[in-house]
TrEMBL record:
Residues 149-170, 620-641, 930-950 are annotated as: Disordered. This is C2 DOCK-type domain-containing protein. GO terms for biological process: small GTPase-mediated signal transduction. Residues 289-455 form the C2 DOCK-type domain. Residues 625-640 have a biased composition (Polar residues). GO terms for molecular function: guanyl-nucleotide exchange factor activity. Belongs to the DOCK family. Residues 151-170 have a biased composition (Basic and acidic residues). It comes from the Eukaryota. Signal peptide: none annotated. InterPro entries: C2_Dock-C (IPR037808), C2_DOCK-type_domain (IPR027007), C2_domain_sf (IPR035892), DOCK (IPR026791). The gene is LOC112225744.
Length: 1337
C-alpha cells in the first residue's frame, strides 16, 4: 500500500499533479495501471475551479493498493509530475523550481508575483491541458529488503522507518555486490517505511517514451549514474509504503466499486490499482471486468503543413459517428468528475513529432457493435492568446473500429491520419482503407502509433476461444446464416465448424483458457446436456465435447503442476466443480421449423428431468456411434418431428453421457481422461446428486434411482479403470496412484447415491483385478500399498458403521437355525454361550464375518496380510495399515452419534478379529519392557554397587545382611516370547503403540459376555499369549512423568525422522538392491556400533536446531493426557484380567493361567500408576488372593515375594488412599497365610526380605509413611474380632516391631556410611533382626 502524504516545492505558484505506476525493468513492462493523486492546497485547486465544477470523491484518493504477483528486484515505483500547460518548453517551466527558494522570497518577490500571475492566466485559459514536468523512481527492493535501504547520501530520496529510527547505513559497493534473493523481495511482510523523496528529474521532451524510461531506470541502479550528475528539481514528496492490510476499509476496486467493509461513503477512499502481471497469472475470472486502456505513443506531423506545434490528442469512445454519441466511459484522474466523454494527452511545447506516455482508462459496455469505435482528434493548442485564433484547432483525425468479425481489436496500431473530418459511415472501415476524396497527412502514411489493451472477462482476445464461443452463440440464438470472418456459417456446415472449433481449443493460450475456464467448461457441458437441434435434426456433440474437455483439463494439469493438492487434484478445477458447476436449468430456444411456425416455448425446467421411456432405442443399441441425425426409432410414435426432437433433448443427463463417452473413448482421449479421472468422477458425482435432488428421486429406493444402462456403464468404467491400476502399476507409478485414489473416492461417493450392494460388487471386482495380478507381479508390495490406500479411502465413508451392518447376525438369511451371535437385544445374549461356533466365527475373519461386515472385513484382512511375519518387503506398509484402522477408531470415538455404550458395543463387534490378529503379531511388536524402568523384584541388582553419594545401600550388601537364600542376579520375571529365527521386532515402537491402543479400544468397548464366551474357548497357550499381550500393553502405556516428557521434547528429531521414513518408502517403491539395502539397515541396531559421521540426527547441533520447545501449559496438558491414557489402558487390562479369571474358574486351567494373571497384575502395580487405578487394582488383587490362596502359599515363592515387595512399596506411598489400600492388602495377605497353616511364616519372611530390598535401594523411599502403614496393619490385627483369641495378633505385633527396628537401623546405616565401626555394629543388629523374623517364621 502506498500513501501519498504531502508534496512541497521551494516555491508554490501553480497546481502540480502526480501519477504513480509500477515498472519492471527486467521484463521491460509496466506492471500496473496509473494511480493519479492530487496533493495541492485548496488555494491551488481554486485556480482550476472553472474547469472542474464538480469533484467526485473517488478522484480524491491519496492511497493506493498495488498487487505484485511476481516479486522481483527489478521493480520500480515511478512517480511522474505534470502541471498545467503554459507557454515555453519543459526546461523553461522547471527553471524557477531549480533556482528559487522560499527563503529567498524577498529577493525574488517581483519575479514570483509575475510567475503566479502567469500561472493564474494559464490555469483559467488552458486548465484542461497538461504538460510533462518532472519524474523520479523508487527502487522497491530497497524498501522491502532487510539488508538496508536508500542511504542518506542518496540524491534520490531520504527515508526513515516508522518508530524505528533511521535505516542502517550500508556501503554502496557492498550493496551493489550483494545478490538479491527472493527473501529480499518479500512484498508481504516488510516493515512499513515513510520516505521523503527530495529530488526529481526534469522531463526531457524528446525522451518521454517507456523505452527511454527503462534506460533511465537501469541507469539509476549504477553507482555512476548519469542522472545523478544532472541538476535536480528540488521538492519534498512524503509517502508511506507498507504491506497492504488483509481487508482495508474504504477501498474502491479498479472499476470504482465499493469493496466491503465500506462503513462511510464520505471518507476519502483508497484505490485498488489493477495489476498487469509481468508473466501469465493462471486465475479464472470470478468477477465482471470490461476495461480498455489506450496508450498513444508517438505522432509524426513533421510533414504536416500549417501551424501544428503544440499538439494534444483527444481520445473518445464513440457509440456512433454523431459527436453527441461520445460515451462517458473514460475514468477521471484526480480532483475531477468520475467519468468523462473525452481525454487529452499532455502537450509538448513546439514539438511536431511528440512522444506520449499517457494512459486512458475506459469502462466499455459489454455489448459492443460494429459502430463502436475509438476516435482520435489531434489539436493544435494556442498557448498565447491571439485575436481571431481559437484555443484549439483540429489538425487531424483517425479512428479504430473496436469490433471486427465479432472480436475486440486490441494490440499495437500504426494509423494514417486524415486532415479532414472522416466522411459518413467511416466507423465500419479502418483508416488503412484509402477513402476517395479524403486528404491524409503525409500521403496516407502511418504517422500515429497507439496501443490498445483490454482487461476483460467478456472478450477473450484469443481467436480459438472466440470462434468456439461465437459458434455456441449462433446455435443458442439460432441466427443462421452468420458471417464468421471469411466463412458463412449455415445450418449445413455448423456441426463441422463447431467440432473443428472444439478441436482447435488446444491451440489457445493456456493463460486465456484458464481465465475463461468456467465459461469454457460450462459451454462444453451444455453441449453434452443439450445437443443442438438443426433443421429438426439432433446433432450429437457429446463425443467431441468430452474429447475437448479431457484434453483441456489435462493441459491445465500438466502446465500447472504446483497448483495441486496431495491427491494430485488441480485447485482451479476442484474449485470449479465445488463452486461453479451446476446443471443447465433451462432448455435452449428451439429453432423455427417453418415460415409462420413460432418457436416452441418450452417450460423453464431442470435440464435433466426426463422420461426414460422416451430415450431412442438406437442410443441404447449403438453406443459407440455418434448420432447426428434424427432417429425415428422411438418407444412411442411421435406426433410430429418437433415432439421427437424435444424428447431426445430432454433425455440427456450429464453423468450418463460422461460415463458413456468415457467407456467408448479410445487412445489419446481415454488417456487424457485417465490422467484426470478425479475431475470426471467428481463431475459425475455432483451431477448425480443434483439430478436426484431436483428430480425428487432422492426418496426412491436406491435401485430405482438410475437406469440400468447407466449402471452398466459405471460397472464397465470401474472395471476398466481397475484393470488399468492392476496392469500399469509398475510403469506409470504416479498416474496409477492418482487413479487408484480417484477411483476409491468415486466409489466412496457412490455409496451415498447408488445401490450399496452394487457398489460393494464394484469394490469386489477391483479386489479381484488386483488379486489376479499378485501371482505375476514383480513387486507385490506396491500392489498391496495401492489396495491399502483404496480400502482406507472407501472406509472413510461417513456411514461406514451402518454400511457394515453392525446389528446383524452372522448367519446367512437362509440358515435353518436362528443365529445366536446377535447383539441387537438390550441384554447381552452371549452369557449363555460357551462353545458356540457362532461366537468363534465373530472373532475370526471367517467367510460369514466378511460377508456380513464387508468393509470391516476388507480392512482387517488387509491388516492381517500385511502383518504376516514372513511377508518380505512389506514392513513399510505396517504404518499405512495400522494407522487406517486406528484413524477409523478415532473417528468412531469422536463421533457424537456413537456415544451410547450399547452402540459402541455393536461397533466394537466389527473389529473383534483384531484381537486374534494382534495376538498373532505379538512376536513382532516392539518390546516396551526394555526401555521402561526396571521393576522386576530384583531388577535393581543390575547396578550392583550402590552409590555412596546418593544415600543408597548396595543391593548385594542389603541381601547378604538379610541372609537371602535367592541369587540376586536372576533373570526378570517377564520376558517377551521369542520366535525362532527372529532377531528383533519388525514393527516400530510407533506402529506397535498404535496397534496396541486399537486392540485396547476393542477390548474396552466389546461386550463382556461375548469376550468371556470367546476366552472360555481358547487354549492355555492362547490365553498365555493374551496375557503376554496385556503385560506388554501395561508397559507400553506406562506413565513416564513430566520430566520424561520434557526430556523427550528437548531431543525431538521428528522432522528428520519423518523425512527419512518418506525417503525409505520412496526407495522401497521398487524391488531390487536398494530395497534390500534399506531393509538390512533397518534390521541393524538403530545406530549400531558403526562410527559414521554423517548421521546428522544424532549430533548435538541437530538436536538444538530440531528442538521443539513446548510451553509449560502444553507440557502439562501432554502429561495429563499421558496420565489419563496410562490409567485407561491399565483399567482395560484389569477388566480383561477379571474376564479371564471368571472364565477359568469353571475350567481346569487354574494352575497354568492364574500365575500369568497375577504376574500381569503385579507388573501393573509396579509402574507409575494413578491412585484411581491402584484402588481397583488392590481390590482385584485381594479378590484373587482370597479365591486362590494356594497359588501364593503352596507354589512359586517368586509370586509371593513379588507381591510383598509391591505392597510394601505402596505402603510407603505419599498418597494416603494408596497407603490404606496397600496396608489392607498386606494385612489380608498375612491373615490368609495364617488361616492356611496357623502361622504366616512365608509372608513374614518375604515381607522382611522385601523391606531390606526396599529400604536399601529405593531413593524415593519415605520412612515415615511406611511406619504409618505398619501402624495401620497393627491396628487391623488388634481389632480383628475373629482372630482375637488366636496367636495371630501377637505374631503380627512381633513382626511389626521387628520391622520397625530393622527400618531404624537401616536408615542409620545410610547416615553412618563413613563410620566403619558403627556400620559393622548396625549390620550385625539388622542381621539379628532378620534372624529373629525368620526364627519366628
Amino acid at each position: 500500500m502506498v500513501k501519498c502524504l504531502s508534496l512541497k516545492f521551494e516555491i508554490e505558484i501553480e497546481p502540480i499533479f502526480g501519477t504513480l505506476a509500477l515498472y519492471d525493468v527486467k521484463e521491460k513492462k509496466k506492471i500496473s495501471e496509473d494511480f493519479h493523486f492530487d496533493l495541492n492546497s485548496d488555494q491551488m485547486k481554486g485556480l482550476l475551479r472553472l474547469h472542474t465544477p464538480h469533484t467526485a470523491i473517488s478522484t480524491l484518493a491519496r492511497s493506493a493498493i498495488f498487487s505484485i504477483t511476481y516479486p522481483s528486484a527489478d521493480i520500480f515505483l515511478v512517480i511522474k509530475l505534470e502541471k498545467v500547460l503554459q507557454q515555453g518548453d519543459i526546461g523553461e517551466s522547471c527553471e524557477p523550481y531549480m533556482v528559487m527558494k522560499e527563503s529567498d522570497s524577498s529577493k525574488h518577490k517581483e519575479k514570483l508575483e509575475k510567475l503566479r500571475l502567469q500561472a493564474e492566466t494559464s490555469c483559467s485559459r488552458l486548465g484542461r491541458y497538461r504538460m510533462p514536468f518532472a519524474w523520479t523512481a523508487i527502487h522497491l527492493v530497497n524498501i522491502v529488503s532487510s539488508v538496508g535501504g536508500l542511504e542518506r547520501s542518496d540524491p534520490d530520496s531520504d527515508s526513515e522507518r516508522k518508530g524505528h529510527g533511521t535505516w542502517n547505513e550500508r556501503k554502496k559497493k557492498g550493496f551493489e555486490r550483494m545478490s538479491v534473493g527472493e527473501d529480499m523481495c518479500n512484498f508481504a511482510t516488510f516493515r512499513p517505511a515513510t520516505l521523503t523523496v527530495t529530488n526529481f528529474f526534469k522531463q526531457e521532451g524528446d525522451r518521454l517514451s517507456d523505452e527511454d524510461l527503462y534506460k533511465f531506470l537501469a541507469d539509476m541502479r549504477r553507482p555512476s549514474s548519469v542522472l545523478r550528475r544532472l541538476r535536480p528539481v528540488t521538492a519534498q514528496l512524503k509517502i508511506d509504503i507498507s504491506p497492504a492490510p488483509d481487508s482495508p476499509h474504504y477501498c474502491l476496486s479498479p472499476e470504482l466499486l465499493h469493496v466491503k467493509p465500506y462503513p462511510d461513503l464520505r471518507v476519502r477512499p483508497t484505490k485498488e490499482v489493477l495489476e498487469f502481471p509481468a508473466r501469465y497469472v493462471y486465475t479464472p475470472h470470478t468477477t465482471y471486468r470490461n476495461l480498455l486502456y489506450i496508450y498513444p505513443q508517438s505522432l509524426n506531423f513533421s510533414s504536416r503543413q500549417g501551424s501544428v506545434r503544440n499538439i494534444a490528442v483527444k481520445v473518445q469512445f464513440m457509440a456512433g459517428e454523431d459527436p453527441s454519441l461520445a460515451m462517458p466511459v473514460i475514468f477521471g484522474k484526480s480532483s475531477c468528475a468520475e467519468f468523462f466523454t473525452e481525454a487529452y494527452s499532455p502537450v509538448i511545447y513546439h514539438d511536431k513529432s511528440p512522444e506520449f506516455y499517457e494512459e486512458v482508462k475506459m469502462k466499455i459496455p459489454a455489448n459492443l457493435t460494429d459502430n463502436h469505435h475509438l476516435l482520435f482528434t489531434f489539436y493544435h493548442i494556442s498557448c498565447q492568446p491571439k485575436q481571431n485564433t481559437p484555443l484549439e484547432t483540429p489538425v487531424g483525425y483517425t479512428w479504430i473500429p473496436l469490433m471486427q468479425h465479432g472480436r475486440l481489436r486490441t494490440g499495437s496500431f500504426s494509423l494514417p491520419v486524415s486532415v479532414e473530418k472522416p466522411p459518413p459511415s467511416y466507423s465500419v472501415l479502418t483508416p488503412d482503407v484509402q477513402l476517395p476524396g479524403m486528404k491524409w497527412v503525409d500521403n496516407h502514411k502511418q504517422v500515429f502509433n497507439v496501443e490498445v489493451t483490454a482487461a476483460s472477462s467478456v472478450h477473450t482476445q484469443d481467436p480459438h476461444l472466440d470462434k468456439f464461443f461465437t459458434l455456441c452463440y449462433v446455435l443458442e440464438e439460432y441466427s443462421f446464416p452468420f458471417r464468421l470472418k471469411d466463412c458463412i456459417i449455415s445450418e449445413a456446415n455448423v456441426e463441422g465448424e463447431l467440432k473443428a472449433s472444439m478441436t482447435g481449443l488446444r491451440g489457445a493460450l493456456l493463460d486465456t483458457c484458464v481465465r475463461f475456464l468456467h465459461q469454457l467448461l460450462s459451454k462444453l457441458i451444455l453441449l453434452i446436456v443439450h445437443p443442438p437441434v438443426i433443421a429438426g435434426q439432433i446433432v450429437n456433440l457429446g463425443r467431441a465435447a468430452f474429447e475437448a474437455m479431457s484434453l483441456l483439463i489435462n493441459q491445465i494439469h500438466k502446465n500447472l503442476e504446483g497448483n495441486q493438492d496431495q491427491h494430485g487434484r488441480n485447485n482451479l478445477l476442484a474449485s470449479y466443480i465445488h463452486y461453479c458447476f451446476h446443471l443447465p436449468t433451462a432448455e435452449p430456444a428451439m429453432p423455427p421449423t417453418g415460415g409462420a411456425t413460432p418457436a416452441y416455448e418450452l417450460p423453464i425446467q431442470y435440464a435433466t428431468l426426463s422420461r426414460t421411456t422416451a430415450r431412442p432405442s438406437t442410443l441404447h443399441l449403438a453406443r459407440s456411434k455418434s448420432i447426428s441425425n434424427s432417429n425415428p426409432d422411438l418407444a412411442s410414435t411421435p406426433t410430429s418431428p418437433d415432439e421427437e426432437v424435444q424428447r431426445i433433448i430432454g433425455s440427456k443427463l450429464l453423468h450418463e453421457e460422461l460415463a458413456l463417452q468415457w467407456v467408448v473413448s479410445t487412445s489419446t482421449v481415454r488417456e487424457a481422461a485417465l490422467q484426470q479421472a478425479w475431475f470426471f468422477f467428481q463431475l459425475m458425482t455432483k451431477s448425480m446428486s443434483h439430478h436426484l435432488f431436483l428430480s425428487s428421486r432422492i426418496d426412491l429406493p436406491r435401485r430405482q434411482r438410475f437406469p440400468d444402462r447407466f449402471v452398466d456403464d459405471i460397472a464397465a468404467l470401474v472395471g476398466a479403470i481397475s484393470a488399468d491400476v492392476a496392469g500399469r502399476y509398475h510403469k506409470d507409478v504416479e498416474l496409477v496412484e492418482r487413479l487408484n485414489s480417484s477411483l476409491a473416492f468415486f466409489l466412496n461417493d457412490l455409496l451415498s447415491l447408488m445401490d450399496r450392494g452394487f457398489v460393494f460388487n464394484l469394490i469386489r471386482s477391483y479386489y479381484k483385478q488386483i488379486a489376479n495380478k499378485f501371482h505375476t507381479a514383480q513387486n507385490p508390495s506396491s500392489l498391496t500399498a495401492l489396495r491399502m490406500d483404496f480400502t482406507r479411502i472407501v472406509c472413510s465413508h461417513e456411514h461406514y458403521v451402518t454400511l457394515n451392518l453392525p446389528c446383524s447376525t452372522l448367519s446367512p438369511p437362509a440358515s435353518p437355525s436362528p443365529s445366536t451371535s446377535s447383539t441387537t437385544s438390550q441384554g447381552s445374549a452371549f452369557s449363555s454361550m460357551h462353545q458356540d461356533q457362532g461366537v468363534a466365527s465373530m472373532f475370526e475373519l471367517s467367510v460369514p464375518f466378511r460377508q456380513q461386515h464387508f468393509l470391516s472385513g476388507l480392512l482387517l484382512t488387509e491388516l492381517s496380510l500385511i502383518l504376516e511375519p514372513d511377508g518380505e518387503g512389506v514392513f513399510f506398509l505396517h504404518k499405512k495399515a495400522i494407522s487406517a484402522v486406528h484413524s477409523l477408531m478415532c473417528s468412531h470415538d469422536a463421533d457424537p452419534r456413537y456415544t451410547d455404550p450399547q452402540v459402541r458395543t455393536h461397533i466394537a463387534q466389527l473389529y473383534l478379529p483384531l484381537i486374534p490378529i494382534v495376538m498373532d503379531t505379538l512376536p513382532q511388536l516392539h518390546d516396551f519392557t526394555d526401555t521402561s524402568p526396571a521393576r522386576g523384584r530384583h531388577a535393581p541388582a543390575m547396578q550392583d554397587d550402590g552409590d555412596p553419594d546418593n544415600g543408597t545401600i548396595s543391593q548385594s550388601v542389603a541381601m547378604a545382611i538379610a541372609g537371602s537364600p535367592l541369587p540376586h542376579a536372576k533373570a526378570p520375571n517377564f520376558t517377551m516370547p521369542t520366535v525362532a529365527g527372529r532377531q528383533c521386532s519388525s514393527l516400530s515402537a510407533e506402529c506397535s503403540r498404535t496397534l496396541l491402543v486399537s486392540f485396547l479400544w476393542v477390548l474396552k468397548n466389546a461386550d463382556a459376555a461375548l469376550l468371556e464366551s470367546w476366552v472360555s474357548d481358547l487354549s492355555v497357550l492362547q490365553i498365555n499369549r493374551l496375557l503376554d499381550l496385556l503385560h506388554l500393553s501395561v508397559s507400553c502405556f506406562e506413565y513416564k512423568g513430566k520430566k520424561a516428557l520434557e526430556r523427550i521434547n528437548s531431543l525431538t528429531f521428528k522432522k528428520s525422522q519423518d523425512m527419512k521414513a518418506r525417503l525409505e518408502e520412496a526407495i522401497l517403491g521398487t524391488i531390487g538392491a536398494r530395497q534390500e539395502m534399506v531393509r538390512r539397515c533397518r534390521e541393524r541396531s538403530p545406530y549400531g556400533n558403526e562410527n559414521v559421521r554423517w548421521r546428522k540426527n544424532v549430533t548435538h547441533w541437530r538436536q538444538n536446531t530440531d528442538r521443539v520447545d513446548k510451553t509449560k501449559t502444553e507440557t502439562e496438558q501432554e502429561s495429563v493426557v499421558d496420565g489419563n491414557l496410562a490409567t485407561e489402558a491399565s483399567l482395560v487390562v484389569l477388566d480383561m484380567l477379571e474376564i479371564i479369571v471368571k472364565t477359568v474358574l469353571a475350567s481346569e486351567l487354574k494352575e497354568s493361567v492364574l500365575g500369568g494373571v497375577l504376574r500381569v497384575l503385579l507388573h501393573s502395580m509396579a509402574g507409575s500408576q494413578s491412585a484411581f487405578f491402584l484402588q481397583h487394582c488392590f481390590t482385584t488383587q485381594r479378590g484373587l488372593v482370597f479365591k486362590f490362596p494356594e497359588m501364593l502359599f503352596e507354589e512359586d515363592t517368586e509370586l509371593c515375594a513379588d507381591l510383598c515387595l509391591r505392597l510394601l512399596r505402596h505402603c510407603s506411598s505419599s498418597v494416603g488412599s494408596v497407603r490404606s489400600q496397600a496396608s489392607a492388602s498386606l494385612y489380608l495377605l498375612m491373615r490368609q497365610n495364617f488361616e492356611i497353616g496357623n502361622n504366616f511364616a512365608r509372608v513374614k519372611m518375604q515381607v522382611t526380605m522385601s523391606l531390606s530390598s526396599l529400604v536399601g535401594t529405593s531413593q524415593n523411599f519415605n520412612e515415615e509413611h511406611l511406619r504409618r502403614s505398619l501402624k495401620t496393619i497393627l491396628t487391623y490385627a488388634e481389632e480383628d474380632l475373629e482372630l482375637r483369641d488366636s496367636p495371630f495378633p501377637e505374631q503380627v505385633q512381633d513382626l511389626v516391631f521387628n520391622l520397625h527396628m530393622i527400618l531404624t537401623d537401616t536408615v542409620k546405616m545410610k547416615e553412618h556410611q563413613q563410620d566403619p565401626e558403627m556400620l559393622i555394629d548396625l549390620m550385625y543388629r539388622i542381621a539379628k533382626g532378620y534372624q529373629n523374623s525368620l526364627t519366628c517364621a
